[in-house]
Design goal:
ABC2_TM
Length: 250
């Protein structure tokens, strides 16, 4: 445990030294949410023609979506690239010759990225509340559950990428190849009632779309998104074993 703690602290320091990673993982969700509310016309005006969402503002609908974006950014754009870089530079190969199991590096990286994600989410919600006002979730327990499941299955997806990419560049490239389609189907461009039914149905069966829809239901609705919750559990049960099976430590 002492070795794991030291390794995690070391990975955390390396994480904070990368200005690009710090910006996109920690700052970007807050910046995006606040700037959208302040700059885009009508984002702070109550909706009048969206059944079930009357009285809410467009910017309110983006809060769960931005939380999903934060999960996706950490899981697909930072974590796999780090492991690709370690594999490219021979760090994993050298670590395998030491008494410290190489799997501890994976645990340390996951811990650092999840902590960074939690910091980013808290910062985004606090900034939103201070600058634009924050609509309280109708079902906070459901939001927390959906958020936790979102972290779990998206981290598993990130582990699959980290298991395969040979270089940092390929980690970034493959991560981005998945990043934007998943964001699109999660509602970054068409949140809530503005998303066409077909896209919403497709998104509900994909990793990030299921998380965004479940958090949105918990924030604004009164039902239980059983399909989305089961989809996230299913993705976790599939992606976790796949990552464990294909992970290369050299």
């Amino acid at each position: 445990m002492t070795a794991l703690r030291a390794l995690t602290l070391s990975e955390g320091r390396l994480y904070l030294r990368d200005s690009g990673t710090v910006f996109f993982a920690l700052v970007f969700p807050t910046l995006l949410l606040v700037l959208m509310g302040l700059v885009l016309p009508g984002m702070d005006e109550p909706l009048t023609d969206a059944p079930g969402y009357e009285g809410l503002r467009p910017i309110d609908l983006y809060v769960p979506v931005v939380l999903a974006l934060a999960i996706c950014t950490t899981s697909l754009t930072t974590f796999p690239a780090v492991f690709g870089g370690y594999r490219e530079k021979g760090v994993l190969r050298r670590l395998a010759t030491t008494p410290l199991p190489a799997s501890r590096l994976l645990v340390a990286q996951v811990s650092v990225n999840v902590l960074a994600l939690l910091v980013a989410v808290v910062a985004a919600l606090v900034a939103m509340a201070a600058v634009l006002g924050l609509t309280a979730p109708q079902q906070p327990g459901l939001v927390v559950l959906a958020f936790a499941l979102g972290i779990t299955h998206m981290t598993a997806l990130g582990c699959v990428l980290a298991a395969l990419v040979p270089t940092a560049a390929s980690g970034n490239g493959l991560g981005m190849l998945l990043y934007f389609p998943l964001l699109f189907l999660a509602g970054v461009w068409t949140p809530g009632p503005t998303m066409p039914d077909t896209l919403a149905t497709v998104g509900s069966y994909l990793p990030l779309g299921a998380a965004a829809q479940a958090m949105s239901e918990g924030w604004f609705g009164d039902g239980v998104p059983v399909t989305q919750l089961l989809v996230m559990v299913g993705w976790t049960l599939v992606l976790g074993p796949v990552a464990a099976r294909v992970f290369r430590w050299r």
